[in-house]
TrEMBL record:
Pfam families: TetR_C_27, TetR_N. InterPro entries: Homeodomain-like_sf, HTH-type_TetR-like_transc_reg, HTH_TetR, Tet_transcr_reg_TetR-rel_C_sf, TetR_C_27. GO terms for molecular function: DNA-binding transcription factor activity; transcription cis-regulatory region binding. This is Transcriptional regulator, AcrR family.
């Protein structure tokens, strides 16, 4: 058993592995990273790392879950931010998602390989994240309906349609080195069109 592992809990060891994997994958890419390299970065044996993760894909899946949890916490703050209309919250929800995705791709272009892997191999993680986002949009829509700002019947269906209409701005793979300002202008135009359809 590795010395460092003797001093750590299982959760601490898993976190150490994920941090090492993140550093290597974001530098060299998912496809060029091996479990042996991750183990070496953790001062672990190649065999021992499999006691904690069955593959580099499972490591990336845990990384993605953590990333989405952080994003969801930030979006909850926007959803419940005081002093904003429902329309303003919807816009900020989309723009914050766009900005964080754009920053990630600009600073860490190899993250695209992780996104592609999760999109193809672990669609369940994306589906769970979408459910959370849809519930937050529904919360904003419900408040807008209650205040008289919006006129709508089926909140859940409308929330799903809103996410579908703005999904382009939630997918960093779509950005293709385009300036953030240009993407923000497009997002605002789409949101303005959607919000006008929701208002009385």
């Amino acid at each position: 058993m590795d010395y460092l592992e003797d001093m750590e809990s299982t959760e601490e060891t898993k976190n150490r592995i994920m941090m090492a994997a993140m550093g290597r994958i974001l530098q060299y890419g998912f496809n060029k990273t091996t479990m042996a390299e991750i183990a070496k970065d953790c001062n672990m044996s190649s065999a021992n790392i499999y006691r904690f993760f069955e593959s580099k894909g499972s490591i990336v899946a845990e990384m993605a879950k953590g990333c989405f949890r952080d994003k969801e916490d930030a979006l909850r703050e926007v959803t419940r931010r005081p002093g904003m209309s429902a329309a303003e919250r919807l816009e900020e929800l989309v723009l914050q998602t766009l900005r964080s995705g754009h920053a990630m791709i600009c600073e860490r272009p190899k993250a695209n390989e992780v996104i592609e892997y999760i999109s193809v191999e672990r669609h369940d993680i994306l589906a769970q994240h979408k459910e959370v986002k849809q519930s937050l949009v529904a919360e904003i829509l419900a408040e807008g309906k209650k205040s008289g700002e919006f006129d709508l019947q089926d909140i859940d269906t409308t929330a799903e349609a809103f996410l579908t209409a703005t999904v382009f701005f939630a997918c960093p793979i779509n950005f293709d080195k385009r300036p953030l300002e240009e993407l923000e202008q497009e997002a605002k135009a789409v949101i303005d069109l959607l919000v006008r359809g929701l208002k009385k």
